Amino acid sequence: MLPRGEGESPTLDAMWDNENPCLSLQLQNAYLHGIHQSYSVYAQQLNEEIGDLQGQVEELCLKEAFWKKAQDEAKEACEKRRQEHTPQNMPNSDSLKPLTVEAPKASGIPDKKDKATQLAREALAEVKKAPRGSYHLASAALPHMSALRQAMQGDDLGDPDLSSKDSDSDFGAEPESDHDSDSEGTKRAKRLVRRKYHAKLTQLKYQQGFLKHEPPFIYKGECQAGLFEKWVREVREWIKRGRLTTQQGIKLSGKYLAHSAYNFFEWDILDLKKRYTLSEYFESMFDYLFPPDFHMQQ
Q1: What ranges does the record give for the region Disordered, renumbered to this chain (predicted)?
Q2: Measured in Å, how far apart are the chain's first and last C-alpha atoms?
Q3: By CB neighbour count within 10 A (0-12 exposed, 13-18 middle, 19+ buried), where does 90 fall?
Q4: What's the confidence (pLDDT) of residue 46?
Q5: Which residues sit opposite 257 in a β-bridge?
Q6: Whole-number Å distance between alpha carbons of 76 and 164
Q7: Which of 106-115, 187-196, 229-238, 272-281 has the lowest mean pLDDT?
Q8: Alpha-carbon radius of gyration of the chain
């Protein structure tokens, strides 16, 4: 737009000269023509900006339609997955909260692992925490001193290495060598790092060599207490002799599962990334595979 105000642009009255009216009219016409051209350019710029805004609005409308469709497909896929993987021995009770699917926010790409699957596992976790008389899981019916329960719990009272942050395969690069410019304190620190690195390298070589020998047999999810107990004991011994951490052992145990047992592993460990102790891992698998009245069937 043209600037206005005295001292910034002349006015029509200031251009008028009574002694020379013809020249005054020419000056006024030229001034008005310049204003017209300036406003035409400004109007063209506004039209271009309006066109850009309209294009952005159309693009946003298309994106909104796309995300809405993606959300609907994600909800349907998660609901279908939940129905396919929900254990048949999942107890039905009015005290369990109904599962609900929350649509992902439109501000980001819909997450394939929607909350439906997570809520299903949380519902099962609530069942396990309930008083023994409220729900009936297969593990709850096992006698405290039974061989199967002792196999799942192991010789110790827990799995202490779960509290530490496992680095699994996070090995890192080889430590830096000493330099002539390093101080004595820096050289000592580097030597300590190199010792830890070589100790971990030695352990890794041992693990890789051991894991090829005498692995557990492949358990397919058969509802046979003796067979499940045998697999649990073999996995525990395999983890112990291989010097594996809890999380390393659980993740590698999936190689020795098949059919319904692998379905549990895929759901809990790969999809939901649950961090179990070994005892919790075996007990959750047992509850997934065995019916609630399993003990009464023996």
Answers
A1: 77-99, 153-189
A2: 92
A3: middle
A4: 86
A5: 219
A6: 38
A7: 106-115
A8: 37
**Tokens 């045998």 identify what position?**
230
The token pair that represents 175 in the structure block: 């430590």
CA distances, 44 to each of 49, 53, 63, 194 (Å): 9, 14, 29, 70
For the chain, domain boundaries: 27-64, 214-297
Tokens of 14: 């200031």
Phi, psi of 165 (to 5 degrees): -85, 105
Residue type, position 254, single letter: G
Buried/exposed code over 48-74 (b: 16+ C-beta within 10 A; e: otherwise): eeeeeeeeeeeeeeeeeeebeeebeeb
Q: What integer pLDDT is reported at residue 19 of this predicted model?
A: 80
- Find out whether 2 and 42 touch, Cβ atoms under 8 Å: no
* pLDDT digit string, tens, across residues 84-131: 666 555 555 444 454 444 444 444 444 544 555 565 566 555 545 544
DSSP state of 219: B
Using CA atoms, how far residue 230 sits from 162, 268, 296, in Å, is 23, 22, 21
User: Per residue in 103-115, is it b (16+ CB within 10 Å) or e — as a string?
Assistant: ebeeeeebeeebb
Structure tokens at 241: 């002799």
Alpha-helical segments (H) within 86-166: 115-129, 147-153
**What is the DSSP code (8-state) at residue 113?**
S
Provide long-range contacts, Cβ within 8 A and 24+ apart, for 269-276: 271/113, 271/117, 272/113, 272/117, 272/118, 272/121, 274/121, 275/162, 275/247, 276/162, 276/246, 276/250
pLDDT of residue 24: 79
Residue 2: φ, ψ to 5°: -75, 140
| Tens digits of residue pLDDT in 10-45 | 677 777 778 888 887 888 788 888 888 888 888 888
Q: Are 91 and 103 in contact (CB under 8 A)?
A: no
